[in-house]
Write a structure and sequence with these properties.
It is found in: Cytoplasm. With 211 residues, this protein is of the alpha/beta class. It contains five helices and seven strands; from the N terminus they run H-H-E-H-E-E-E-H-E-H-E-E. The protein has a single domain, classed as Rossmann fold (3-Layer(aba) Sandwich). Helix 2 packs across helix 3 and helix 4 packs parallel to helix 5.
Length: 211
C-alpha cells in the first residue's frame, strides 16, 4: 500500500508545479492588462539570466528627471537597455518629450511602437526610421561589465545621440567609458531595487544635474 502512494504523491507534486507556473503566467498577464500600471518598475520582473537589475524607484525617478531636463522642451529621449528609466519617463506622460526603449527582452514589446528590439552584438541593426543623431539624449545601461559590451553599445549610442550621453555602468568601467564615449563620472550614486555586488556609477559628457 505504501508503494502505491508514491506515484500519487508524484502526481500531486506535478500538479502543484503546474499550478505554480499557471499562477506565474496569470500574474504576468494581469500586469500587462488594462487597469494595471504597466509602466511601474517591477511590472515586468527582472530576468537575471539576461543580466537585468532594475533601479530603485528613487534612482529611476532621478535619472528620468535628468533626461527630461537635458532633452529640453519637445526633446527626444532614447533608453538603451534601461527599461526602469523608460518606465519612469512614461509616468510623466503629460510632459513635452518623446521616448523610445531599445531592449533585447521582447517582453517589453507590450509598450508598442516605442519598443525597438536591440542586441548590442549588432550595434547598427536598427530600424530604418531610427535616424542617426535624432535623439537629444541617450541613456544607456549596457547589460554586462565588459569592454566588448560597452564598446558595441557605445557605437549605438554615438549613432543615436545629437551629443548628450548619460551612461550607467560599473565603477570599474570608468576608464573604458572615457575611452569609448568621452564621459566623466558623476557624484550621484545610482541604487538598484536589489543590492548589487559591483559598485555602480553614472557618467555624462555634459553639464548635468547629477553632480
Amino acid at each position: 500500500d505504501d508503494d502505491d502512494d508514491i506515484p500519487q504523491l508524484s502526481s500531486h507534486t506535478l500538479a502543484a508545479l503546474q499550478e505554480f507556473y499557471l499562477e506565474q503566467q496569470q500574474r504576468e498577464g494581469m500586469k500587462t492588462s488594462q487597469g494595471f500600471n504597466q509602466y511601474s518598475i517591477g511590472s515586468i520582473e527582472e530576468d537575471w539570466q539576461l543580466s537585468q537589475f532594475w533601479y530603485s524607484d528613487e534612482t529611476a525617478s532621478c535619472l528620468a528627471n535628468e533626461a527630461v531636463v537635458a532633452a529640453g522642451k519637445g526633446g527626444r529621449i532614447a533608453c538603451v537597455s534601461a527599461p526602469s528609466v523608460y518606465q519612469k519617463l512614461k509616468e510623466q506622460d503629460g510632459k513635452d518629450f518623446s521616448v523610445c526603449i531599445l531592449e533585447y527582452d521582447r517582453r517589453f514589446s507590450v509598450y508598442g511602437e516605442e519598443f525597438i528590439f536591440y542586441d548590442y552584438n549588432h550595434p547598427f541593426n536598427l530600424p530604418e526610421n531610427l535616424l542617426p543623431h535624432s535623439f537629444d539624449i541617450v541613456i544607456a545601461d549596457p547589460p554586462y561589465l565588459s569592454e566588448e559590451c560597452l564598446q558595441k553599445t557605445a557605437e549605438t549610442i554615438k549613432y543615436l545621440t545629437k551629443g548628450k550621453i548619460l551612461l550607467c555602468t560599473g565603477a570599474i568601467m570608468e576608464e573604458q567609458a572615457a575611452k569609448h564615449l568621452g564621459v566623466k563620472i558623476c557624484k550621484f550614486i545610482p541604487k538598484h531595487s536589489r543590492n548589487l555586488a559591483n559598485e555602480f556609477r553614472c557618467y555624462v559628457n555634459y553639464a548635468s544635474g547629477l553632480d
